């Protein structure tokens, strides 16, 4: 797999160990003929240590051999999130700090959530591209402001705050992009 094709949530082999990509920064060259650099923030799946990887866009890195299993949320406590495999009812626990970004989108009954399984252990969650969440708090729209494309902050049921169009009301269900955290449409 080319470095420029790696996405957040991909698991690759770096220095003989599987690492989960958590963030990507692209640095464009300032000189002619220079290569674009990709900087990856990752976490070693086995040791849980943070890893920084810098590569050119044409460098090749091996994708790790993982299985992805459909899971559902069971519950979470102060330190862990518990999910269950929908096929064989195996339960997995994940430290909350490892799934901090994904928690903003996880609700009870979320369809399409998959666990990444490596050596019979769950090492991360993969979310669907978009999820539906309910607005729990937002300011009412001001009459007469609908002609302009103004936005306002809205707090969703998971605590995530997104910018929504002025005409959206409290209690509505919205589609949110899990990759960018942005409002897509009404659900």
UniProtKB/TrEMBL annotation:
Domain Translation elongation factor P/YeiP central span(s) in chain numbering: 68-123
Species in which this protein is naturally found: Stieleria magnilauensis
Pfam families (UniProt xref): EFP, EFP_N, Elong-fact-P_C
PANTHER family tied to this protein: ELONGATION FACTOR P, TRANSLATION ELONGATION FACTOR KOW-LIKE DOMAIN-CONTAINING PROTEIN
Protein name as it appears in the record: Elongation factor P-like protein
Coiled coil: none
Gene: yeiP
Residue stretches spanning the membrane: none
NCBIfam families, sorted: PRK00529.1
Family: Belongs to the elongation factor P family.
SUPFAM superfamilies: Nucleic acid-binding proteins, Translation proteins SH3-like domain
Boundaries of every Elongation factor P C-terminal domain copy: 131-186
